[in-house]
Write a structure and sequence with these properties.
- With 123 residues, the protein is mainly beta.
- 0% of the residues lie in helices and 62% in strands.
- It has no helices and eleven strands.
- The strands form two sheets. Strands 2, 4, 5, 6, 9, 10 and 11 form a seven-stranded mixed β-sheet that branches. A four-stranded antiparallel β-sheet has the order 1-3-8-7, with no helix packed on it.
- A hairpin with a 4-residue loop joins strand 7 and strand 8.
- The protein is elongated.
Length: 123
């Protein structure tokens, strides 16, 4: 099992900044990608920013130029730096990690989610 623990959400005014962090732990053999999704009330969950183990990133058009994803591979942590936040960024933000893990060999594919952290941007 791979567990993800998120932190850093909160309430901020429009134009402000927040940094989310997500740490993965458990029986991890590899992390092929870690990233962030969000879900606003009444909307489907959408991808925000993904970073692969090779260092490539996939950033949603709606947040390009404002959000940056980074990862510290030595401690399996991914960060989402969010600048110039807008009310439409209000959502629950979820961390996701995909890779191989488990306590037996060969390792098995996992696709794990964090519990979510609320980000609220006031106008």
């Amino acid at each position: 099992q791979v567990q993800l623990v998120e932190s850093g959400g909160g309430l901020v005014q429009s134009g402000g900044s927040l940094t989310l962090s997500c740490s993965a732990s458990g029986s991890i053999y590899s992390i092929n990608g870690m990233g962030w999704y969000r879900q606003a009330p009444g909307k489907e969950r959408e991808s925000v920013a993904i970073r692969t183990s090779g260092g490539s990133t996939d950033i949603a058009d709606s947040v390009k130029g404002r959000f940056t994803i980074s990862r510290v591979s030595t401690d399996n942590t991914v960060y989402l730096q969010m600048n110039d936040l807008k009310p439409e960024d209000t959502a629950v933000y979820y961390c996701n990690a995909k890779g191989y893990g488990g306590s037996s060999w060969p390792p098995r594919v996992y696709d794990s989610w964090g519990q979510g952290t609320q980000v609220t941007v006031s106008s």
